[in-house]
């Protein structure tokens, strides 16, 4: 992404490996340390502004997580654009999530 549209377009804190890319390391030197510290030290207790009904942070460390977010977002965009119903989009998004979950042994 950085080579195609510019390193500054990468969102800070999205991947630890991003900070190992020399061009991004140079670009991010003013904010890399606090960003990486935050990534390393975030816990549910120090990261939430309101109580939530689940344990954990929004940092799922499986390769499929980013793709799942993209695919679910596309379904929601299609519903907003009127290309499918909200129920169709939700059903498809749920199917994507269940497929990823099955890959990792969840049988819920």
TrEMBL record:
<protein>
    <recommendedName>
        <fullName>Extracellular solute-binding protein</fullName>
    </recommendedName>
</protein>
